[in-house]
Amino acid sequence: MNQEYEQDDRFETDEDEAEATRRDAGDAESSRASRGWWDRNADEYQNDHGAFLGDDRFVWGPEGLDEAEAGLLGPAEELKGLDVLEIGAGAAQCSRWLAARGARPVALDLSHRQLQHALRIGGEVPLVEADAGALPFRDGSFDLACSAYGAVPFVADPVRVFREVRRVLRPGGRWVFSVTHPIRWAFPDEPGPEGLSVSASYFDRTPYVEQDAAGRAVYVEHHRTLGDRVRDVVAGGFRLLDLVEPEWPAWNGQEWGGWSPLRGNLIPGTAIFVCERED
Ligand SMILES: C[S@@+](CC[C@H](N)C(=O)[O-])C[C@H]1O[C@@H](n2cnc3c(N)ncnc32)[C@H](O)[C@@H]1O
Fold first, then answer.
1. Strands 19-22, 208-211: parallel, antiparallel or unpaired by DSSP?
2. Which CATH code for domain 25-181+225-254+269-277?
3. Using CA positions, which residue lies closest to atom 15 of ligand 1?
4. Which atom of ligand 1 is found nearest the CA of 148?
5. Which of 18, 76, 207, 245 could form a disulfide with 268 if both were Cys (CB 3.0 to 4.6 A apart)?
6. Which residue's C-alpha comes closest to atom 4 of ligand 1?
7. Integer angstrom CA distances of residue 70 from 66, 67, 76, 266
8. Domain ranges within the chain, ordered by starting residue
């Protein structure tokens, strides 16, 4: 992967002053914070994780579970000719993998800078800059929808997103998305031994917010328990087919933020929900 790209000064701000807290954050504030944070941090994200993600691999999370082996979207040989929406696509690595299998992916993301990285890497995948809560597509436009850690962890109202996904899917279409495993919210987000002791209530749904000196959110993540996520999937009009908790593989010695081999061998880091549109 070519890491030689021009930094864009428009997206640089000093986030050192941001204060981390737990407080409520609604849909509009969460979206605004996400767009700003991902625009400012896309360069660093792609620089740090681009090699692990690969330009045209479909990786579900820091464990490195690859769609080529997992087959959560269905058998790879049956992807040919399918219309697929990737939500929170970042630099569209997963969409490039889908395109190489003969699918017709569309890569959607809120962040302009993330999509500029998709353009930098190249390929023929159509890119759409939009919020997952208001998908700019006609009803029944896609056979499949997928998201590797895109959008869902960052929105205040996941049911709104799921209903939108349901609307743009054809009857029986699959919706597969990964998020931080909810159990992680009970532990410090640290890769070492300090990340192994419970420090917060798993049941506290108050969002994690980083805010600037004026109290404006600059980063927001939303916690839902496993049960909440199941209820959200059902409320969004889906059947839950599977809940995959990838185990940390022996080959993966790489840390990614609070994800590490040490913790990954003891507690799950990622939850992947495999859903199907209720007709
Ligand atoms: C952790 S990155 C994952 C990107 C990519 N799937 C990957 O695996 O590298 C999360 C992505 O979700 C996008 N995102 C966050 N909130 C969103 C929203 N409300 N609508 C669409 N995209 C959103 C961000 O801009 C970012 O590119």
1. antiparallel
2. 3.40.50.150
3. 151
4. 6
5. 245
6. 90
7. 6, 5, 10, 21
8. 25-181+225-254+269-277
Name the phi and psi angles at 108, rounded to 5: -110, 135
Instruction: State in Å: Cα 277 to ligand 1 middle.
Output: 22
CA–centroid distance, residue 90 to ligand 1 (Å): 5
Residue type, 60: W
Question: pLDDT for 193-228, tens place per residue?
Answer: 999 999 999 999 999 999 999 999 999 999 999 999
For residue 97, is pLDDT > 60? Answer: yes
Question: Within a 13 Å sphere around the CA of 188, how many CA atoms are in the beta-carbon half?
Answer: 9
How many residues does this entry show for the chain? 279
Tokens read off for 113: 């800078």
Lining ligand 1 with CB less than 6 A are: 31, 34, 38, 53, 88-90, 109-111, 114, 131-133, 148-151, 154-155
Percentage of the chain beyond pLDDT 90 is 93
Binned at pLDDT 50, 70 and 90, residue 7 comes out as low
Of 3 and 93, the structure prediction assigns the larger pLDDT to 93
From the number of C-beta atoms within 10 Å of its C-beta (0-12, 13-18, 19+), residue 247 rates as: exposed
Three-state DSSP class for residue 274? strand
From atom 17 of ligand 1, which residue's Cα is the shortest distance away?
Answer: 151
Instruction: Write the single-letter amino acid at 233.
Output: V
Q: Give the residue whose CA is nearest to atom 27 of ligand 1.
A: 90
**pTM of the predicted model, to two decimals?**
0.95
Give 276's strand partners.
174, 239
CA of 43 from ligand 1 middle (Å) equals 14
Q: Which atom of ligand 1 is nearest to the CA of 37?
A: 25
